[in-house]
Amino acid sequence: MTTSTPGRTLLVSQRPGAYPTIGDALGQAQQGAVITIDAGSYPELLELVGLRVTLAAAPGANVVIDGSGGTHPVLQVRGGSVVLQGIELRAGQGAAIVAEDAGLTAQRCKVTGGRGPAISVRGSAPFELTGCTITGVEQGMAIEGASGRLENTVIEDVTGDGIIIGLGAAPVIRDCTVTGCTLRGIYVYQYGRPVIENCEISRTGLEGIAVAHHSEPVLKRCSVHDTGGVGIAFGPGCRGTVEACRVDNTAEPGIEVSEGAGTTVVDGSRGGGVAQGGGELDGLLAELDAMVGLPRVKAEVRALVDELQVNEWRRNAGLPVGAAAHHLIFAGAPGTGKTTVARLYGKLLKALGVLSRGQFREVSRRDLVGQYIGHTAEKTAVIFEESKGGVLFIDEAYTLSRSSGTGDFGQEAIDTLVKLMEDHRDEVAVIVAGYTDEMVDFLATNPGLASRFGKTIEFENYTPDELLAIVGRMVSAEAYELDPAAGEVFVEYFRRISQDANFGNARDARRLFEAMRKSQSQRLRLLGRVPTVDELRGLLIEDVREAVAR
C-alpha cells in the first residue's frame, strides 16, 4: 500500500489492495483524506489527533464501528476535524464519540450503547449533526462551551438526560425529537445559550426542558408533552424566551418560571393543555373531528363520550348509573392514528371528570416483561400504578402472548393486567392496540381478558385520497408549497403500495414527504447559487416523482 497524499480517497475493504481496517487507513491518511468504508462490522476504537479526515460509508453499505467490547470511546478526536457519513457506532463502557476542540460533522449516523454521554463535544470548535439517531444510551449528547447545529436528529430510550448544554455553549437545535428519557429531555446549565426550535420532547421522567445556573435559552415552536415533571422549567437567575411553544399532558404547571428568573413567555405559548370548563370538551371533540379520515372511529369515540356524559348527568340527578369500564381495544394496521386517538381519549375522560389526570403512558412488551419469575408482575404493577388517573396504552399488545422460548414471562404480564384492570377499573383506562387478527389471539390467552374491555374500535386503512390530505398537511405545516400536478402521482402511488402487506398508512405518507424534501434539497444544491424563497418553498412534480421512485 502506498502512502496517502493530501485529499486522497482511501478504501477500507476486504478486497485486494484495500486497507483491511479503518485504523490502518487512518495510519496512512494525510490532511483532507476521505476514507470510504465498505459494508461490514469493524471492531475498532479510533483516536485522531490534529487530523482533518472524512469517514464515509460506501454507497448503500451498512457500516458499523463496533466498540461494544471496549472501555474507551469508539471515536476520540482532539484538534483537527472529522466528518462521519452514514456510519453506525456501537459503544461499550465508553462514549461513542468524544470531540475535544475538534470539528465534528455527522450525517445520517446512528449511535447506540455506551456510558456517559453517547456524543460529547467540548471546546470552541464547531459541530454539525444532521439526520442522526442516538438510541439506547446512558445520556444522549453533551455540548460544553461549543457552538454548532443539531438538526433532524432523534434521541430516544435514554436512561439519563437526552441533551445536556452547558458552560456557555450556544448551539442551534432544530427539528429534533427527544423521547423516552428517564431524567430530563433537555438540560441547560451554567450560562448555556442554545436556540431550540421546532423540537418535540416527550416521555421524560422529569422535566421536558430544564434550565438552570444563569442560562438563557431561546425556545421557539417546540412541543413538550407526556412528561413526568413540568413541561418547561426555568430556575432562579435564568433568562430566555419561550415563544409559540405547546405544553400538554405534563405535571402542573406546564411552564414553570421560578422567582428571580427573567424569562419571557410570549406569542401564544401554552402550558397545561386546553382551557377548562365546558369549552374543553367541545375543543377536544373538534380536535378529533379535524383528524383526516377515520369516520367510524370518530363515531365510536363520540358514542362513548355521549354515554359518559349522560351517566354523569344521571349521577348528578341522583339516578342509578351502571358500572362502566373504560378499557378499549384499538385494532388495525400501523399508521392509522391509534396512538393519537388514545391520547385524545384520555383528555376527553379527564374533561368529563371520569379520570383525575388524563395523562398518557405508552408502553410495549419490553416495558412490562421481566427476566425472572416475579419480575414481570412487579414491572407491570409499577407501570399500572404510575398510569392511574390516565391512559395506559399498550402498543402491539399481542406480542405479550408470543412466547420467545423457555423463561418467557409475557403471559405473567397478561394475568397481572387482568386483575389490576378489574380492581382499578374506575382509576385508569387501559387501551391495547395491534393488528386485528393478532388481537383476537391475544384475547384468547386469559379467560377473563376479553371481558375487561368495553369495546373494540377498528381502525381502517386510510384511502389514497386521505393519505394525499395527510401529506398536504405536512407540506403546509413545514411551510412548503406542493405542485398541484402532484396529486395524481400521490394517489396512484398510495393506491399501489396499499396492497403491500407491510403498508404503513400515515407512516408511509411521512416517509414520502421526507423523501420529497431530500429530492428538493439535492435539486437546489445543483443550482450553483442561493435559492430564492419561492424555490425553497416549492416542491415540484420532479421532486415527487423522484421520491416515489426511491
UniProtKB/TrEMBL annotation:
Q: Provide the alphabetized UniProt keywords.
A: ATP-binding, Nucleotide-binding
Molecular function, one GO term? ATP hydrolysis activity
> Has keyword ATP-binding?
yes
Report which superkingdom the organism of origin falls in: Bacteria
Q: Which InterPro entries match?
A: AAA+_ATPase, AAA_lid_6, ATPase_AAA_core, Beta_helix, CbxX/CfxQ, CbxX/CfxQ_RuBisCO_ESX, P-loop_NTPase, PbH1
Per the record's keyword annotation, is Glycoprotein included, yes or no?
A: no
Query: What's the protein here called?
Result: AAA family ATPase
Could you tell me which species this protein originates from? Amycolatopsis rhizosphaerae
